[in-house]
Design brief:
With about 575 residues, the protein is of the alpha/beta class. It is about 50% helix and about 15% strand. The chain is built from 20 helices and 13 strands. Strands 2-1-3-4-5 form a five-stranded mixed β-sheet. The chain has a four-stranded parallel β-sheet with strand order 7-8-6-9. The protein has a four-stranded antiparallel β-sheet with strand order 10-13-12-11. Bound molecules: iron/sulfur cluster. The site of iron/sulfur cluster has 12 residues, from helix 8 and helix 11.
């Protein structure tokens, strides 16, 4: 293909001027496409530097193209470019092109998806004598519904975001369903509808979408997307069935009855969805077998083919319309922001349009998912999951004990190091626990009052890093942080020693997952305790029983976060 088929003459001229000014150095531009998918209006972003490359790319908007100039005959992407360009494409339909500095050749690492979509037309649907009036028995014409549907139609056709406040009785769900579904069907796109309540999800699933389907008379599929923790994990279930993971006597009679029912149900369920259980499961019972990202063995799991959660991923990939709740939606966005769009951990597949219904609480939900937290309780819980002595009162076996029970140290190349690290980890974890408790207790002592009310206090950088009154706290924080780092080093060394067994022993991967959780805890701890990022507000909470101290950093402006991952 000739370069002029994809780059307008003006755009090549602009790029040429920049290249001349900068001695043909590799540079990054962003640009748009015209109606013929021709690149136009390039905008210089920066010289190409690996260090700030990722940050530079955040300035590129939806449906735009990244252009990196290269030396002639070097039109091939680096591994980093391959990865990032795929993310950009998946995230916001951003194309990625390499352009030789002699402006003679180019290569699209990622080309755009069809930019120019079929427009939707709902002209005949909502009027007094429209399709709805003919198809729905007892249809009542509502001017607001018709207007709302038209606003949505126009916003879709013009690729605009739209916010609508509609009173009850407007018929709002059909007003957005019909244009959105028609657009999804005609353009082969995926739409997500995120609601705040289960009631509305059920209404959409059982009533409104089937009704819309009968009216539109098009073939499309829709599915309800639930959070991962709603599904049973086959691997954990299997461990529970063979009595490997718990000591059943520790549970109450009621909990034991639930476990027995779950053991029967788990062998015959086709969905693994806990909503099928005829009782409200105790959280500590469900925790034994629920699917979680942290404990999932991913591709190494022997049950992956039968995994309920993995099966739902396929359904979600194939569906045209996904119904979800705000929490699932923002949890997914948060994973996208944190894992650089690592598809293994995403909850939702790639989508093209989002409709938030019942959106009044959406800001607080979004904010909570982009907040960073550490607490005394979460710290203790994490340490207990890593190692707890075998003890009659302990319900679950910790990750270290599971490794110890399943590895034959004689099989390991460095069995001496294994034994040394295993014992050191067990000894050091109780020291770490004490140091952590001292740090959180120091905060409690400083900020607690004589009342029984919960305490909330905002924290600022100056006070936390400079105040003379907080010197002891800062000392304790430094000791804690350095002990956390030492323990992380120990865990990593242990992980290296047992790594050779990971192909045959899932407990090694389980330990590795705990190592990642521990590292994530340290990262959050460091981030909050630096009090450096002006885009965040920091505060602490102490509960009324004074048993927990929670430190939180919340982004002040979630619009910026959302603009990189959503818009
Ligand atoms: S793939 Fe993950 S969630 Fe599924 S059964 Fe295996 S460990 Fe559990």
């Amino acid at each position: 293909m000739d370069i002029k088929d994809r780059f307008s003459e003006e755009s090549l001229q602009t790029i040429k001027e920049y290249l001349q000014e900068n001695n043909n150095k590799s540079m990054i531009f962003k640009a748009t496409f015209d109606d013929n998918e021709l690149i136009q209006e390039p905008f210089f972003l920066s010289l190409y530097k690996k260090k700030n490359f990722e940050e530079t790319l955040t300035k590129v908007g939806k449906n735009e193209v990244v252009i990196r100039t290269t030396k002639p005959n070097q039109l091939y992407p680096s591994d980093m470019e391959l990865e990032l360009s795929e993310e950009l494409y998946n995230r916001r339909n951003i194309a990625y092109s390499l352009l030789s500095s002699d402006l003679d050749d180019f290569y699209f690492v990622q080309d755009i998806d069809r930019l120019f979509l079929e427009e939707v037309n709902i002209e005949n649907y909502f009027s007094k004598d429209g399709i709805l009036a003919k198809e729905i028995k007892g249809f009542e014409y509502r001017k607001e519904q018709e207007e709302m549907a038209h606003y949505i139609q126009d916003a879709i056709n013009e690729d605009r975001k739209i916010i609508i406040e509609a009173g009850t009785g407007t018929g709002k769900t059909l007003a957005y369903l019909i244009p959105a579904i028609k657009w999804a069907v005609v353009n082969k796109k995926k739409v997500i509808i995120a609601t705040n309540t289960i009631n509305l999800q059920e209404q959409l699933l059982l009533k409104d979408i089937p009704l819309a389907k009968s009216i539109i008379k098009e073939d499309f599929s829709y599915v309800l997307v639930k959070g991962r923790s709603n599904y049973l994990c086959k691997r954990l279930f299997n461990e529970l069935s063979i009595g490997r993971s718990i000591d059943i006597e520790i549970f109450s009679m009621e909990a034991r009855e639930q476990i027995e029912c779950i053991l029967k149900w788990g062998n015959k369920t086709k969905t693994g969805d806990k909503a099928e259980l005829p009782f409200e499961v105790y959280p500590d019972v469900w925790e034994l077998i629920q699917s979680t990202t942290e404990l999932c063995l991913g591709k190494k799991c022997p049950y992956r083919k039968e995994c309920f959660y993995m099966k739902t991923r396929m359904e979600k990939m194939e569906a045209d319309i996904l119904i979800s709740n705000h929490h699932v939606f923002f949890a997914d966005l948060n994973v996208r922001a944190e894992t650089d769009f690592d598809s293994e951990y995403l909850i939702l597949p790639r989508y093209d349009m989002v409709i938030f219904d019942e959106a009044h609480n959406i800001e607080s939900v979004a904010r909570s998912y982009f907040s960073v937290e550490v607490s005394k309780i979460s710290f203790t819980r994490l340490l207990n999951r890593i190692y707890q002595k075998k003890n009659k009162r302990k319900k679950e076996k910790s990750a270290l004990i599971r490794v110890e029970d399943t590895i034959d140290e004689k099989d390991l190349e460095d069995s001496q190091q294994y034994a040394y690290l295993l014992n050191t980890l067990k000894e050091e974890i109780s020291i770490l626990q004490n140091i952590g408790d001292e740090y959180f207790d120091e905060i409690r002592k400083i900020y607690e009052t004589n009342t029984e009310a919960p305490i909330r206090k905002s924290l600022n950088n100056f006070e936390m890093t400079k105040s003379r009154f907080l010197e002891t706290l800062r000392d304790k924080k430094d000791i804690f942080q350095s002990k956390l780092a030492d323990f992380l080093t120990l865990m990593m060394s242990f992980n290296n020693v047992i790594d050779e067994e990971k192909e045959k022993n899932p407990e090694v991967i389980n330990f590795n997952n705990h190592l990642k959780m521990f590292k994530a805890y340290i990262d959050s701890f460091k981030f909050i305790n630096s009090f450096e990022d002006d885009n965040y507000i920091y505060w602490l909470d102490i509960n009324s029983k004074r048993t927990n101290v929670l430190l939180t950093a919340t982004p002040l402006n979630i619009a910026e976060k959302l603009s990189t991952v959503l818009f």
